[in-house]
Amino acid sequence: MKHVREVMRFIKYSKEKENLSRVLAANEERFREVERSAADVIETITNSGIKYDENDEAVNMCQAIQEMRKEERRIGELNKAKEAARNFYNLEVVVEKIAQGVGYAVETVKEWLGLGS
User: Which of 76, 84, 77, 113 is nearest to 100 (CA)?
Assistant: First the structure.
C-alpha cells in the first residue's frame, strides 16, 4: 500500500473535523487519488462513513469527505425539523401548521409524531 502516510494522517485527525479539513486541503493532491485498499483501511479504523464505489481502484478522499459531510448536514437538518415538530405539537399547534413551518408534508410530520393518518 503506497498511501500509508495519507492513511496515518487521516486516522490521526479523524476525530478533529477542523484539523482534518486543513490536512486534506493542504495535501489535496495526495488525497485526491488514494488507492482503494488505503481507503478501506481508513474506513475500517475510523468508521467515518466514507462511501465510495467498490469497483474503483482509487478514491478521491476529499470528495468522499465532502459527500459524507453533506449527508451529515442533511441528517442534522432533518433531526432539527423533527425536534421542532415535536416542540410545536407539545404547544398544541395543529399538524398542518407544523408541516408548513418545518417544510415537510403533513403525512411525514404525522409519522414523526406517531400519529395515524
Answer: 84
| DSSP label of 57 | S
To the nearest 10 degrees (0 to 180), the angle between helices 4-13 and 17-26 is 150
pLDDT digits (tens, 9 = 90+) for 25-82: 888 888 888 888 888 898 889 888 888 888 888 888 888 888 888 888 999 999 999 9
In the 8-state DSSP scheme, what is residue 16?
-
How many angstroms separate the CA atoms of 58 and 66, rounded? 16
Q: Any idea which residue has 418545518 for its cell? A: 102
pTM of the model: 0.62
Distances (CA, A) of 32 to 42, 79, 106, 113: 14, 32, 43, 43
Q: Position of cell 475500517? A: 44
